[in-house]
Design brief:
It contains one helix and no strands. The chain has one helix spanning about 10-50. The radius of gyration is 21 Å and the shape is rod-shaped. The N and C termini lie far apart (about 65 Å). By secondary structure, it is mostly helical. The longest helix has about 40 residues, at about 10-50.
Length: about 50
């Protein structure tokens, strides 16, 4: 493994961002899917009642 010495903080911060950002984006997209499905079900129920 290369010796990063003074640049270690930058390497670790980029590594952490590279791991955390995709996880957050997956969580956000799953939340949006859940909310969209709930809205679709609600709209379908309103349409059935009308």
């Amino acid at each position: 493994m290369p010796d990063y010495a003074d640049d270690a903080i930058y390497v670790w911060s980029i590594t952490i961002i590279g791991i955390v950002l995709p996880v957050l984006m997956i969580g956000y997209s799953l939340l949006r899917v859940h909310l969209s499905k709930a809205r679709l079900e609600r709209l379908q129920q309103e349409e059935d009642q009308a």
